[in-house]
Amino acid sequence: MKQKSKKRKFKNVLMEHNLITYDDKMILAERAFMANSAAQWGMGKIARDEFNKTQIDSFGKILMAYLKGRVDLFWERGMLRMEHTKGDHSNEHETTGDISGQ
What we know:
Elements lengths: L1 H15 L4 E2 L4 E2 L1 H18 L5 H15 L3 E6 L2 E6 L11 E3 L4
Antiparallel strand pairs: 1-2, 3-4, 4-5
Helix pairs in contact: 2-3
């Protein structure tokens, strides 16, 4: 039951940030797939105690920045990477980074 509740909450977050929208005959969810992939990966790391509290907090902030469109997340050679979007200048000195914790 706990798993269904987490999935429902995550779906609500995706819908609140307009990452899941509905057209006449289609569900549009381009960024939702990456958000889900990153969230599942992060929850797995947390469940296996591979992230400390600081890393958990940072990951949460990065995921929220992705949901708000301030960063892009992508997989590269098995590592989760992030890149600041062109409109975000909050961290100009570092535009890409490995957030895999490896």
